[in-house]
Amino acid sequence: MEKYGTVPKRFTKAWWEYFWDYYKWHTLGTAFALVLIAITAVQCATRIDYDLTLTAAGNMVLSNEQSQLITDKLSEYISDADKNGENHVFLQQLTMSSGETVDPQYEMAMSTKLTLEFAAGEGYLFLFTKEQADNYLNSGECEGMFMQVSEWADEMPADNLLSLSGGKPYAVKLSESKFLSDLGIDMSDCYLMMRLQRNDEKEEDVANTKYQNSLIAANLLIVK
Length: 224
Description:
Blueprint: H1 13-46, E1 52-58, H2 64-75, E2 89-95, H3 104-120, E3 125-129, H4 130-137, H5 142-145, H6 149-152, E4 162-165, E5 168-173, H7 178-182, E6 190-194, H8 199-202, H9 205-222
Parallel strand pairs: 1-2, 1-3
Antiparallel strand pairs: 3-6, 4-5, 5-6
């Protein structure tokens, strides 16, 4: 190893000054890497692997209390996908609006997050306000992203609760949801849509259990 000048006796004041002059960036870089490793380790150790995930997107805003009521109640009906002895449900809200006062950067961030949920997220259930539901129902992407209601519903809802894409029902309006009504939550302007399983999910036991949990939750939400 190359030495820079005369190396003072180790751990003396002069040695510390010498060390700092020549190795401070190495030391800071190593310290930074160790901090990142520690943070990642803590996040992995404390991360909750949810057995059911729902995504609410649009100009709706559910309070923390309302969100908790929904997730607590749904957790009573689902299975423990990761076998940790607990049923965890997550309801994430991606608030969007078409109003003129909306921050375009925020809107873009929420839209990107929603796109990532379709491409790589673990959630199958999406609660859309009418505007967001129409974005997909009126686009050519609907068939390749969502399941028809007839493919997941135990009983087909009344026609007036269904929203169509290409003449086929893909969304159920939640205006008559007994589940939500019993909780005192009004989501009458919301529509439930269920994402298709990706190929990588079909071969995994945990992913399949989460899919089955989503079927259970979807049917609970649409019962009148």
